[in-house]
Amino acid sequence: MWVKLPGHPCWRVQKALDEAGIQYEIAKGPSRRSKRDELERLSGQRKYPVIEFDDGSTYHEESKDMAATIAAGRLDERRAASSSSNAPG
Length: 89
Description:
The chain is built from four helices and two strands; from the N terminus they run ααββαα. It is mostly helical. The N and C termini lie far apart (43 Å).
């Protein structure tokens, strides 16, 4: 069972996405940090929330900062930053 609590980091980011009118898909993963191998492979760390963009790049920081970035309309900047940091080189 999944519960959304107002102070929960995932809920905070989800609410910001909803308020910004950004479509997204929720990908549920393990509750226990020790079981989040796939999340670590994808994003380099084991904390939720993480946004995975269509191009496979990811964005994660503290949920308050993520919500502020989304509210300010700067989510695409994070995609570009993530893509360039993931580029081979």
